[in-house]
Amino acid sequence: MAEQEKEAGLPLKENFSEWYNELLMKGEVMDVRYPVKGLYVWFPFGFNIRRNVYDIIRRLLDKDHQETLFPLLIPENEFMKEAEHIKGFEEEVYWVTHGGTSPLEVKLALRPTSETSIYPMYKLWVRSHVDLPLKLYQIVNTFRYETKHTRPLIRLREITSFKEAHTVHATWEDAAAQVDEAISIYTEFYRKLAVPVLASKRPEWDKFPGADYTIATDALMPDGRTLQVGTAHHLGDNFAKTFDITYEDAEGEQVYAHQTCYGISERSIAALISIHGDDKGLVLPPAVAPVQVVIIPIIFKESGNVLAACGDVMTRLEQAGLRAKMDASDIRPGAKYYKWEMRGVPVRLEIGPRDLKNNAAMLVRRDTGEKIQVSLENIVDELSTLLERIHEDLYQKARTSMYEHVFECSDLGEIREKISKGIAKIFWCGSKECGLKLEDDVGAGILGIPTEQTKDCNGRCLVCDSDASVQVYVARTY
Ligand code: A5A
Ligand code: ZN
After folding, report:
1. Which residues span the domain enclosing 300?
2. Which end of the chain has less neighbouring CB within 10 Å, N or C?
């Protein structure tokens, strides 16, 4: 893209959908021009963000999971084994039917998720109670022929960054504990992206096909809709029975194992970009920013000393493990600021002749615009502290904003009004009939029962007026 074209600016963030699409292009995250619907291309800059984000989830999982890699293709006979699971996915599967010009004897599914690819091998791998728990994960592409409106990073037909974990346990209770553990890993992961999430147990009709229950984490997007950014499923022994995954218990009996699976995707990046970005472009939390500090020499006539000082600072920052970049190109300063602001660099560091005389530099925060003068001597410490503060401020701001958009509602009219801005919290008796009627009436979905009920709840179901002992979130969802 030509520089002028890029400098045309973004639509205002209040026009969220247009802003989002333009930001992906101008911030060089995704190119949305690939000629297949629902498939998009990572720009190298966006892919760098992705690498930092996925390094975080890897580090969290590697504590007690092992990474693995299973095939993309699943034979039809394995894919068709679990009845509920097939029902949930059959409309979304891409099939490979030919090898060259010859029809295949057994059709092959492109994995929409990998239960039916992994579990035939788990049958072979799980032998005894001493093999348990087994906790594996992989980061792969998966394919879903989505019929709802596709959007880059949010609803893809090729999910390029599907992180799925699959665990096997001795008992139902152990698996339930793992589901809770998964949600706490995801909450911590999102905390490291400065993204607050709400965890809730999905209603029966919205659980993962083949699961006993599903707990999800949702982020609140700027337009008031929620985005499901992670799910953990208790699979009970449903898949174990289908795929014959048994182990020998301490008494020497063969018994069915219990399983969980949990996943996230590049929706994590959609959430972090959308929540933190502003009218000027990306605002990246330092932990995932490809460039954490951009150094801009302010050069008039005599530039030698300034450039040397910038180079020296650059070396010191790199030695301290910070991702720094110096922009000494001869485009005008305004264009430089524009470029690095669009790319969300958390801090701009400027050094000019006057700063140099004072042995100082100017730091400019991307998130607040605040300018801070610092001495060149302590610049590494000052910057490290500032980056941490920026992370914390981004998180607190997002968290405050999220909770300001959770509204306790006591009638249907109020729900309709509030869900145009955010999330409604209401009493519901728990019956499917009332749940579906409510969703239909207000044109929004029941997210589920919060995993942490904030207070002792006693109220009346907003639909049938019977006793209700829990509150649920209701929201318009992506
Ligand atoms: N096997 C389990 C883990 C599974 O497939 N769960 S899931 O269907 O809920 O997907 C996991 C997560 O992937 C979802 O919570 C959602 O955040 C993300 N996801 C699902 N479909 C997606 C799509 N079409 N595009 C982008 N992300 C998607
Ligand atoms: Zn009811």
Report:
1. 293-385
2. N
